[in-house]
Design a protein that fits this description.
With 573 residues, the chain is of the alpha/beta class. The protein has 18 helices and 21 strands. The strands form 4 sheets. Strands 6, 7, 13, 14, 15, 16, 17 and 20 form an 8-stranded antiparallel β-sheet that branches. The protein has a 6-stranded parallel β-sheet with strand order 1-8-4-3-12-21, with helices on one face. Pfam families: GMC_oxred_C, GMC_oxred_N.
Length: 573
């Protein structure tokens, strides 16, 4: 149907729909498309505009105490390049994006499924266990992979054969660590970009779907008993208000916002579970490559291109804890990936400083630029591809060939703004499963946002179990390199000294939990079908329903759960 700002819509009477979706991110837009057709009228409410902007970023404030100065600085380095407007003093937890497409405006596209062990109830992980099995979600994972434009679903050592690539002769894999691959979701529209749900949705609008932007949901409507959801109210920053009446309402606005809306509306919280069990993927650096090993390890743990059905796909090689060692040593799940570090004399950084008048060493920066004509030419070529100066057929062919033959180069260029930067180091980052803890939670503060709504307050900490797990991952990584006869890594001081509390651990921007899934209403907010316990017609979907986090980037699983919800709702709407 259409995409309109709430400010442009006639709202004197309530709008009516068969299904209303709160949130225009990956899950909300996926659900709207999956439910479209058969005469259904669907309304999607997106708090931001078509893209990120400063005025809506003011609604993303999250308050949290507890970061050390080192952790606050690390968060700033890690997250500030992801969005145009993120600031650590405003988003003191997480990475939130308003605007059509939600967090896919900022994500790296990194995708992997959960492991079978993540679904299990484990006696060493309190509150673990999903009310569904890996088998139940498998068909929807396949659909989600196609939607994300991913390649063949090989995330372990089997991929080497598919790549026609010999596994590394000296390998750190063994009883403790196994081969792990991630994939990158790739846009179908912009050949050199990651999948962005907003532009893809706008380019192919499904029938019967109306998207209202600049429409922040302020409350959910219900009967007096709070047992039936009948609709919602929304407001724009300009003061325009609308009511939407619908028999089915789905919250798909992220772990923080889903919880905040339920708390503001006093719905689904009979057992004081809303907002609790907030999880992320605690992350830190555990080791670094020796200076003379940077190039070799960047290549070894880099990216690999695979051609499949006429398209190239990119896989990232890393390591993950084996099920065997998790069970034997009561460990959480976890993985290791490699991050390349940008050199101080990178020519593009130098050129940027010179053009902006920010250079503090003009002669040095000019020398860096003049010594790198080939690198600068590559950057110019990347800009041509990105901005559509070449015919689509030509640019797609170039990008596919580059992805297949030079995945490391293209991925590195994309990570640093599609510019072929100069590297100075390689660090090994570990990410761990975050055990569910009811003390990690979202509550409502006394501070009000520009719409007069309570600003969310987060209580979150990695906890001793996650910190200990990161230490074990770091130790096993270094040990496995030595056992394999590989050049030794340089462990971080806290790993070498066995002091996990000294590690600089941050959130990865993967906010999970807060409306967790459980068959027992006393242990969760939604049931196995994502229906809010005790409130007919109200559902929640996305990372907020995860009972446990695993270590995998969550979007693939979030989309799978959304498609599973659509399958459930089709017989009810």
């Amino acid at each position: 149907m259409s995409i309109q700002s709430l400010n442009e819509v006639e709202t004197s009477n309530p709008l009516r729909a068969d299904l209303v979706v709160v949130g225009g991110g990956a899950c909300g837009l996926t659900l709207a498309r999956a439910m479209s057709g058969q005469g259904r009228r669907i309304i999607v409410l997106e708090s931001g505009g078509l893209d990120q902007d400063a005025k809506h970023e003011a609604l993303n404030v999250v308050r949290m105490d507890g970061w050390s100065p080192e952790e606050a600085a690390a968060r700033d380095r890690y997250h500030r390049t992801l969005t145009h407007h993120w600031a650590g003093d405003r988003q003191q937890y997480g990475v939130r994006c308003r605007g059509l497409g939600g967090a896919t405006q900022a994500w790296a596209g990194k995708s992997a499924p959960l492991d079978q062990i993540d679904f299990e109830e484990r006696d060493w992980v309190p509150f673990s266990g999903w009310p569904m099995s890996e088998t139940e979600v498998a068909p929807f994972l396949k659909q989600a992979s196609h939607l994300l434009n991913l390649g063949p679903a090989f995330y372990d050592a089997r991929l080497w054969m598919r790549l026609r690539h010999e596994p590394p002769a000296q390998s750190p894999e063994g009883d403790a660590l196994r081969t792990m691959f991630w994939q990158f979701a790739r846009s179908r529209r912009q050949v050199t970009d990651i999948m962005r749900f907003g532009p893809d949705f706008r380019a192919n609008m499904p029938g019967g779907v109306q998207v209202l932007t600049e429409a922040t949901v302020t409350s959910l409507h219900s009967n007096a008993e709070g047992s039936l959801c009948t609709g919602l109210s929304a407001r724009s920053l300009a003061g325009k208000e609308v009511s939407v009446e619908a028999p089915i309402c789905v919250l798909a606005s992220g772990a923080i916002e889903n919880a905040r809306l339920l708390l503001m509306s006093d719905l689904g919280n009979r057992h004081d579970t809303v907002g609790r069990f907030l999880m992320d993927h605690p992350t830190t650096t555990v080791a670094r490559a020796a200076p003379d090993q940077v190039t070799d390890l960047a290549s070894r743990f880099g990216l690999f291109g695979l051609r499949d059905q006429g398209q190239s796909h990119v896989y990232m090689y890393g390591l993950a804890l084996t099920d065997q060692v998790q069970r034997a040593e009561s460990l959480l799940n976890g993985a290791v990936f490699v991050t390349e570090e940008r050199a101080p004399d990178d020519p593009f950084a130098a050129l940027r400083r010179l053009l902006r008048g920010q250079s503090k060493a003009r002669l040095s920066d000019m020398g860096s630029v003049l010594r790198s004509p080939v690198r600068l030419a590559r950057g110019a070529g990347a800009r041509m591809l990105e901005r559509g100066y070449l015919p689509e057929r030509v640019s797609r062919g170039i990008a596919d060939t580059a992805l297949r033959l030079f995945p490391n180069t293209l991925a590195r260029d994309h990570r640093f703004g599609r510019l072929p930067v100069k590297l100075s180091g390689v660090r090994f980052e570990a990410t761990t499963e975050h055990p569910p803890d009811p003390g990690n939670r979202v509550t409502l503060s006394q501070e009000l946002d520009p719409l007069g709504l309570p600003v969310p307050h987060v209580t979150w900490s990695p906890g001793d179990a996650a910190r200990s797990n990161l230490l074990q991952i770091g130790r096993k990584l270094c040990e496995s390199f030595e056992q394999a006869g590989l050049p030794p890594l340089i462990p971080e001081p806290w790993v070498r000294e066995g002091q996990p509390r000294a590690a600089t651990v941050i959130d990865l921007g993967h906010s999970l939990g807060t409306t967790r899934m459980a068959d027992d209403p006393a242990r969760g907010v939604v049931d196995r079908n994502c229906a809010v316990h005790g409130v007919t017609g109200l559902y929640a979907v996305g990372g907020s329903v995860f009972p446990t986090s695993g270590h995998a980037n969550p979007t693939l699983m979030m989309i799978a759960l959304t498609l599973r919800l659509a399958d459930h709702l089709r017989g009810r709407v």
